[in-house]
Amino acid sequence: MAATKKPVTESPAEGSPATKAPRKPxxxxxxxxxxxxxxxxxxxxxxxxxxxxxxxxxxYRRLSADERSALGLxxxxxxxxxxxxxxxxxxxxxxxxDVFGTAPTELTRAIxxxxxxxxxxxxxxxxxxxxxxxxxxxxxxxxxEAVLRYSREVAFAAxxxxxxxxxxxxxxxTRLEALAVDGILRGENTDALQSRISALGWTxxxxxxxxxxxxxQEANALFLATLRRAAARFAEDVMVGIQGDKLILVLGNVxxxxxxxxxxxxxxxxxxxxxxxxxxxxxDATASAKAAFxxxxxxxxxxxxxxxxxxxDLLPERVMGGDESARRALIVNIYRPLIAASxxxxxxxxxxxxxxxxxxxxxxxxxxxxxxxxxxxxxVCDVTGWDPLIPREAFVxxxxxxxxxxxxxxxxxxxxxxx
Length: 419
What we know:
It holds the Pfam family GGDEF_2. By secondary structure, this protein is α+β, with helices and mostly antiparallel strands. The protein folds into 3 domains: about 30-165; about 205-315, Alpha-Beta Plaits (2-Layer Sandwich), CATH 3.30.70; about 325-405, Orthogonal Bundle (Arc Repressor Mutant, subunit A). The protein contains 19 helices and 5 strands. The protein has helices at about 30-40, 40-55, 60, 65-85, 95-100, 105-110, 115-130, 130-135, 140-185, 190-200, 220-230, 255-265, 285-300, 315-320, 325-340, 345-355, 360-365, 370-385, 390-405; strands at about 210-215, 235-245, 245-255, 275, 310. Strand 4, helix 13 (about 285-300) and strand 5 form a beta-alpha-beta unit. Helix 16 (about 345-355) crosses helix 17 (about 360-365) and helix 17 (about 360-365) crosses helix 18 (about 370-385).
């Protein structure tokens, strides 16, 4: 009798839907006796866990009573949740609610992520040490494996808690930083402003500089973080703000201003970058910011302006743009010192400027030797800090002479130098 042939069934191709069975949650098989022992020993395990934390973690002993209580509650919840998980494992989503509960905020404030992991390791060690008492010999291996898998889930959940907390802190710091920068620009009350920037870790009380320039089109969080790191190489404190299409840098205690401004200007979008005068105090930073914004609004008037350019180097353009602080600076820092110096400095400067920057023409008009004109022009540079022999600086001096002559005698200008 011929053997009956079994029908040949073709195996489905590897990876086809027929070969993919639905994935089921991992089942940890625990006997009723082991589960009962675990439930009965939750209290003793919690007590041992607290004692172990006190003995093995020095930083835990230094915490306040409230902080130790919050962390002890987290650890105790972890042991209780393990018993439920050992009986019927579920998705990792339970970890955040069952173990941490309402503690994440307190947890992240009290200890670092590294210490949180030390806490978890201690709790796991306590349970592992009691495995021989909690399970029969044939179930001890399975119980230890369950503890390891459980500790992995708790560790990942703790990392998630800290990541979320860091994101929240970052978002809050960004909002606080924006408010602080806006407060500087608006001249907010100094005490309130000092409180805000102190919350950001700002420690500088002098040598504050404001840089303003075009903001990149995609000024995302990654760009701002890169900008802060770059600025931190040149200044002790840094704040960044974006207002419309303008990027604002607030720098405290700049170490090498000339190099810092040049290097940081490369991080701005194409276009003029202006930095205000160095502010001696936080209250003076508002004036520095206003000067920088006034400068960037008229920077295109000087086609040969360097990048970056000082707001003080744009005084003529700022005056033409209607900036009263620039007008006052020219009168107080240039025109009045020249008048006070006498010795014919203002007359010599005027003749030199009106005579096409010619020493000989000025000498003929004043009936003096050209060397006398040259000497007086050097004195002008000593008195004002601007050299009339350099065309751009001569333009600044000429603007100062014009606005000084146009100023009404009754106008009350302060005599404190602004440059």
